[in-house]
Every structure is written in C-alpha cells, then in structure tokens.
Amino acid sequence: HPPYPHYWDRLLPVAYMMYASPLGTQAILFSKSVSTLLRATLAGDSQLGYWFTYVILVAFIFTIIFWATRLDKSLKLFPAIVIVPTMQIGWTIFSIISGGIYFQEFQGYSPLQMGMFVLGVATIMVSVFFLTPSTADKYTEMEDMSAREAPLDVTDNTLAEPLSPGYRTSSDEELPQRVVNVKDLVA
Fold first, then answer.
1. What is the tens place of the pLDDT at every residue in 75-121?
2. Alpha carbons 175 and 172: distance in angstroms, whole number
3. CA-to-CA distance for 126 and 142, rounded, in angstroms?
4. Which helix (H) or strand (E) holds 160?
5. How far apart are the C-alpha atoms of 139 and 2, rounded to whole Å?
6. Model-level pTM?
7. 3-state class (DSSP) for residue 98
8. CB contact at 8 A, 44 and 170
9. Which end of the chain has the lower number of beta carbons within 10 A, N or C?
10. Where do transmembrane segments lie in this chain (predicted)?
C-alpha cells in the first residue's frame, strides 16, 4: 500500500484542480468580453481608445497562460488518466458558475431550476470522482508484481514514484522515478 492514506490519491488532484480552475476559467469570461469589444469596434464604435479594452485583453492573455501552464504542470504531477478528467470537470463547472454570475444567467431561474442545476453539477462532480481510477490500485498491482512501493519522505516534501509502475525497459533496467515536490502543487 502507499505510504500515505488512500484518499490522498483522489484528494490531491481535486485540490490542485480547485486551485487552478477558478482563475484559469476566467479566460472564458475575458474572451467573451474581448469578442464583445471587437464586435463593437467592427460595427463602427471603436473601443480601442478606452483603457478598459486593454485591461480586458491583458487579463485574457494572463488567464489563458495561467490555465495552460497549470494544465501542463498537472500532467507532470499526476497520472493523466486521473488529472485530465478532473481538470476538465473543474474547467466546466467553474466556467458555468462564473459565466452564470457575470452574465446574470441565474437571475431568471426558479427555485426548481436552480435546484436542478445544482443537482446536475453535483452529479457531474461525483460521477467523475468515481470514474477516475485511484492510484492506490497502482500500488496494489506493484505489490503483486514484487515491485517496490513509492517512498514518502516528509522531511523534504517529495513523493517519489516510478513513471510506469511494474514495467521495465528492454534491458530489464528499472524505470526512472518522477519526484513530486509537494510545494510544486501550489507554485
């Protein structure tokens, strides 16, 4: 078994998603704002003389770069089969919520519609949680194959684990390790 509680396998990717998605999904709001400003400019009402146009453009560029770098970093920190669906769900949910608030789409909802919306979002989150495989299963397979477990060294905040557990190279060498620094999760 891994040297840490089994629920961390599911909790760490979700925590990373909760950190990256709220800011990353603001790129959608800023892109909608940029497109609205561009439409107005092309219709003859130039928006290029206003400082707000440039603030929105810079914010759009910043948030899209932030999201792309966090997605890239998440693929380095977690197995793709776990983090890709987790990040996609975070992107979707935070996009829906921030767009609904910013564009006032929730104002016309009846209590039943709001309840069904919340139920739908909760269903998506719970479904992805149960569909993503736990990396704890990976450690069980490693034990069965007489491979070594991933050591956790809390003194230097790193987690070392094989890149492809249970597999060896053609020369029967052990595969290199990926070292995850816990501090990198928020950097």
1. 998 888 888 888 888 888 888 888 888 888 889 899 999 999 999 98
2. 9
3. 28
4. strand 158-162
5. 6
6. 0.62
7. helix
8. no
9. C
10. 50-68, 80-102, 114-132
Beta bridge partners of 161: 178
What per-residue confidence (pLDDT) applies to 126? 82
Phi, psi of 6 (to 5 degrees): -60, -30
Reference 28, options 98, 105, 89; nearest CA is: 98
- Cβ distance 98 to 26 under 8 Å? yes
180 membership: H or E segment, kind and range: strand 177-181
Q: Is the pLDDT of residue 1 over 70?
A: no
Q: Which of 135, 121, 185, 126 is nearest to 164 (CA)?
A: 135
The domain spans of the chain are: 9-82
Q: Give the lowest-confidence range in 2-11, 42-51, 79-88.
A: 2-11
pLDDT single digits (tens) 58-86: 999 999 999 999 999 989 988 888 888 88
Q: Are 72 and 24 spatial neighbours (Cβ–Cβ below 8 Å)?
A: no
Side-chain-facing half-sphere of 99: CA atoms under 13 Å: 15
Q: Tell me the longest C-alpha to C-alpha distance in the chain.
A: 71
Residue 134: both structure tokens together? 């736990």
Reduced 3-state DSSP string for 99-158:
HHHHCCCCCCCCHHHHHHHHHHHHHHHHHHHHHCCCCHHHHHHHHHCCCCCCCEECCCCE
